[in-house]
Write a structure and sequence with these properties.
Oligomer: heterodimer
CATH topology of chain A: Rossmann fold
Helix content of chain A: 25-40%
Number of helices of chain B: 21
Structural class of chain A: alpha/beta
Distance between the termini of chain A: 55 Å
Number of strands of chain A: 12
CATH architecture of chain A: 3-Layer(aba) Sandwich
Largest sheet of chain B: 7 strands, mixed
């Protein structure tokens, strides 16, 4: 067995090995292409043989993803990839399991399975493609669309308050939450690697542009002219700095995050908020930066990177341990003993005992 | 002859002065408030009866509410047991003995007592308060008016006697009163000439580490036993000789437990890990409970967040190579519908157990019904055939659960196993098999493939139209499955019109070919020359069998066939049916099997439909047969 594993490891693969012969059916210009490319290119770096990798998706544009990955895959039903992946991981803990889902798939129809997967903490990766719109059904608002969103199903504007996916995940006791962008491929790849290396459920929200039904939804964070003013890239142990000239910082005033200028002589780097992925309280504040709208006066920038990471026991390990303990306690399985039950009696041929 | 027997921790050897009377069959109905411990003494008596060697059948009947309003008719819990020295197939139509712990339980069940039957009454359950809660006016108190004069009535103040017996116990008064069910059990054990040992052993296990409670229960059990002896309430003791049954080793088994054991046995013999994903629901939860007890068999039980996650986690595990199971009842099965379609589209093995209950919607959660048959056969979007099989008795749940797994794995398909609340909670003696006697299960697992091998085609089929199971971790056969229509060989997404039609036909043909691998339909009773055929399925087996046997003894020539394989039907079913001019189909629904039979075989079958949440009485079936023959 070990030799086989060794052999598997030695065979070096490339991104190409992870592509299939299927025509990709996303709209030209869709953000999904960039994400697919990064996922395919990160795979060889994981050192996992492709037969030990499974991509499971639900329904939606993003959920076509498994057809384009030359690994095991399942394009399942709407909202249920998280539940299917839970069963798969429980049954086969050694597999590398990736869930591909969208804002509708994971936060609307599949909201329940999503939060329960996070609390159970199976060691799987969730890539949540958030485009803030329903693409496959041709443009209705989604649970992450902003209030007032005008779509085919909301011609006079949506009344729904949107989900904050990372705050929701943190609330469900997720052990790894991160945010990335389709248009920042290098950063995205780093985050994907981090997600796979985290033992536990890794939730990566990926801002993905739907150029047909919601084009430019994330322009504030991707457009060259202003993205640096509106985005904050998190790095473990580093101060929170952003701005076109990297001249703005974040300080914590009590529980309040505040923007300070690094040029006014009052604030030095030592005064700034130092990013600590292990700090749940700070993570709780960081995920709420989302409440500010880019462009508003004193708006906090939108953070990208790993917000929070926690080491907590994973479900499948606990399950394995329980089964082991039960064998120690009750002995190896003996089917005849089980079928007999304990209280039995014998009938002779006459029937008269 | 009366045999002296030993009681644990006390010797009871005495000359018997009472008259010993032998009976062939007895039906007892225990009834009381849902907090009275009726189910517990019912099960204790059933186990004791089984160990005594009688054949038996039980019917627990309890309210949906865990603590239904105290003392009311709605809160009455019942446990009926029919046992005898001859074969027993049903819990009995009417009972010979009714134990009524309070006024409400008498009110609800008196109509289920035979003429001149025996009533054992706990008089303290008939005080002012209990009468009021039961909705009985003081002047209508059955203990003081004439309503019971046609019965043999034994009035005992069980509550008072229990308190008296425990006056020195340190337990609180509530805990003391809780022991009164043991008094009843001891009392009945004496009447039927039983050993107390099985219950003494049970109590010792149940109250391990709770010495006071254990001693109180033991004391009251024995007090009930001695009270029956010394009070001379009964002039007779009754003996029901062990039944003549096939030679072999037996145990008592409850339907849901049998289902769980069948699943475990199948996984074990197929050398697969068993994964169960499910959500608690009455009356299916006991399958999960039973499986969870046997984790040393490598069983993974996953209590999911909802019914959908229950089946979806099972689908994930099946993709991963486990024998995957989910179980539920009607409302839960409705939620699983979409995922069932996915499993059938991906052609993965999966067993779905539906322990049916009264519907629609929440319906009658604790009552039995057979009204989910058409849901199982048709209840999915698209052309979505899934094999459907049904168990006919508590012990048959074992065999059919095993069969469900065999079909699922050998034919790479989801399979429905239908049971219902009646057989799921009912018990009977079971001549259990050994592992060596069970039919082996043949897996169709894809081996690893090297680059020199032919390309892997996930949907390539064998002569039974079955594809291979390629499990993650197997090199060279990586593939993608999904709910979109598949190309007939590559499994790639295909919107081709011809391909879709072919795939729909293939999926149907694949299910139909299972008929080649199931037993032929046989007559349970009668011959192909009989005047009328009673055709049944599922839990009505015992009542139909009893009716058919009794009719034959009365000189009425009827036959009985019981269908266990419903989709596909056994290959010879049409031919068998063609011999009969008259076919009656009794069902606990408004006519579902009858629709399938009429549709498939174009015969003029007549329905007998009972939709009361209760099983058939044999008498009801006999009457219907006679109506048709006259």
């Amino acid at each position: 067995m070990l030799e086989v594993l060794e052999e598997k490891k030695q065979k070096k693969s490339t991104a190409k090995d992870f592509a299939t012969d299927q025509d990709i059916r996303w709209c030209p210009g869709c953000g999904d292409y960039s994400i697919l490319k990064q996922v395919q290119s990160v795979m060889p770096e994981l050192g996992i043989p492709k037969e030990d990798i499974v991509f499971v998706s639900g329904i939606g544009c993003s959920s076509r993803f498994p057809y384009y990955m030359n690994t095991y895959g399942m394009h399942s039903i709407h909202g249920r990839a998280t539940a299917i992946a839970s069963g798969l991981k429980a049954s086969r803990p050694e597999l590398s399991v990736w869930i591909i889902t969208g804002d509708g798939d994971s936060l609307a129809i599949g909201g329940n399975h999503f939060i329960h997967l996070l609390r159970r903490n199976f060691d799987v990766n969730i890539l949540l493609f958030n485009n803030q719109i329903y693409g496959l059904t041709k443009g209705q608002y989604s649970p992450t669309s902003e209030v007032g969103k005008k779509t085919k199903s909301t011609p006079v504007g949506s009344l729904d308050h949107p989900f904050n996916p990372l705050a929701l995940s943190l609330g469900a006791d997720s052990t790894f939450i991160a945010r990335a962008l389709d248009r920042e491929p290098k950063h995205l790849k780093e985050i994907l690697l981090r997600a796979e290396r985290h033992k536990g459920t890794s939730l990566v929200e990926i801002y993905q542009n739907c150029n047909i039904f919601n084009d430019g939804a994330f322009n504030s964070f991707t457009d060259k002219t202003n993205k640096k003013e509106n985005s904050l890239y998190l790095e473990q142990g580093k101060p929170l700095i952003f701005g076109a000239d990297q001249d703005k910082g974040i300080v914590l005033d009590g529980f309040q995050a505040k923007i300070v200028s690094l040029n006014d002589g009052h604030t030095s780097l030592d005064d700034l908020w130092i990013h600590d992925e292990k700090d749940r309280n700070k993570a709780n504040i960081l995920v709420r930066f989302f409440d500010d709208n880019a462009g508003d006066a004193n708006a906090l920038p939108r953070p990208f990177g790993v917000f929070y990471q926690e080491d907590r026991s994973v479900y499948e390990d606990g399950l394995k341990e329980q089964l082991k303990q039960e064998v120690e306690l009750k002995g190896a399985p003996d089917l005849n003993k089980l079928l007999g039950g304990g209280n039995t009696w014998k009938k002779k041929n006459t029937g008269k005992s | 002859m009366w045999i002296a027997f030993k009681l644990n921790e006390m010797t009871l050897e005495k000359q018997n002065i009472q008259v010993q009377k032998e009976l062939e069959k007895v039906t007892i109905l225990y009834a009381g408030d849902s907090g009275d411990g009726i189910q517990l003494i019912g099960n204790q008596f059933a186990n004791n009866t089984a160990l005594h060697g009688n054949d038996l059948s039980t019917f627990p009947d309890f309210p949906a509410e865990i603590r239904a309003p105290l003392g009311t008719v709605a809160g009455v819990s019942g446990f009926q047991i029919n046992f005898g020295s001859t074969e027993v197939f049903t819990p009995g139509d009417l009972s010979d003995v009714l134990v009524a712990m309070n006024a409400a339980s008498l009110k609800k069940n008196l109509s289920r007592l035979k003429e001149r039957g025996t009533v054992i009454i706990n008089t303290s359950g008939f005080d002012k308060k209990n009468l009021r809660l039961a909705g009985i006016a003081p002047e209508d108190n059955p203990l003081t008016n004439s309503s019971l004069e046609d019965y043999k009535v034994h009035e005992i103040d069980i509550t008072k006697l229990t308190r008296e017996c425990l006056k020195e116990s340190s337990l609180g008064s509530k805990e003391r009163d809780r022991c009164k069910n043991m008094f009843v059990l001891g009392f009945i054990y004496w009447i039927y000439n039983r050993s107390l040992n099985s219950t003494i052993d049970f109590l010792k296990k149940k109250f391990k580490g709770k010495e006071e409670v254990l001693q109180a229960n033991l004391k009251v059990l024995k007090a009930g036993y001695h009270f029956a002896d010394t009070s001379e309430t009964f002039s007779n003791r009754f003996e029901i000789k062990p039944a003549e049954m096939k030679a072999g080793e037996y145990r008592n088994i409850i339907g849901n437990q049998a289902t769980a054991l069948g699943l475990i046995a199948a996984a074990h013999l197929a050398n697969l890990n068993l994964f169960y994903g499910g959500y608690p629901i009455t009356p299916a939860s006991d399958i999960l409970h039973e499986l969870a007890k046997h984790k040393n068999f490598g069983i993974k039980t996953f209590q999911a967040e909802d019914e959908i996650a229950g089946i979806c986690s099972a689908i994930g595990a099946s993709f991963g190579g486990d024998l995957a199971i989910t179980a539920s009842s009607g409302p839960g099965i409705a939620l699983k519908g979409e995922a069932l379609g996915l499993a059938l589209m991906m052609e993965l093995p999966l067993v779905v157990v539906n322990v049916q209950r009264g519907g629609p919607s929440t319906g009658l959660p604790t009552k039995t019904e057979q009204s989910d048959l058409l849901q199982a056969v048709y209840g999915r979007n698209g052309e979505a055939p899934i094999p459907v099989i049904a168990a006919q008795s508590p012990s048959d749940c074992f065999e059919m659960a095993y069969e469900a797994c065999r079909i699922a794995v050998e034919h790479m398909t989801p399979v429905f196993l239908l049971t219902d609340g009646y057989i799921a909670n009912g018990a009977e003696p079971w001549k259990f098999p050994t592992a060596e006697e069970l039919e082996p299960i043949a897996l169709k697992v894809k081996a690893p493939r090297t680059e020199e091998d032919a390309p892997y085609l996930p949907y390539k089929r064998n002569e039974d139209l079955v594809r291979e199971w390629a499990i993650p971790g197997t090199a060279g056969v990586e593939h993608r499955l999904g709910g979109l229509e598949k190309d007939k060989e590559t499994g790639n997404v295909s919107y081709e019109p011809e391909n879709h039609q072919e795939m729909v036909k293939l999926r149907a043909a694949k299910v139909n070919r299972i008929a080649r691998h199931i037993p032929k339909q046989e007559l349970d009773n009668g011959t192909i020359n009989s005047k009328l055929l009673i055709l049944g399925w599922g839990s009505t087996y015992g009542a139909i069998k009893t009716a058919a046997k009794e009719l034959q003894m009365e000189g009425v020539d009827v036959a009985h066939a019981h269908i266990r394989y419903i989709q596909p039907f056994p290959e010879n079913l049409g031919e068998l049916l063609s011999h009969f001019d008259k076919v009656i189909i009794p069902e606990l629904n408004d006519g579902q099997l009858i629709k399938l039979i009429r549709d498939r075989y174009l015969i003029d079958a007549k329905g007998l439909n009972k939709i009361k949440g209760l099983p058939f009485q044999a008498q009801e079936i006999k009457e219907e047969v006679l109506n048709h023959l006259n």
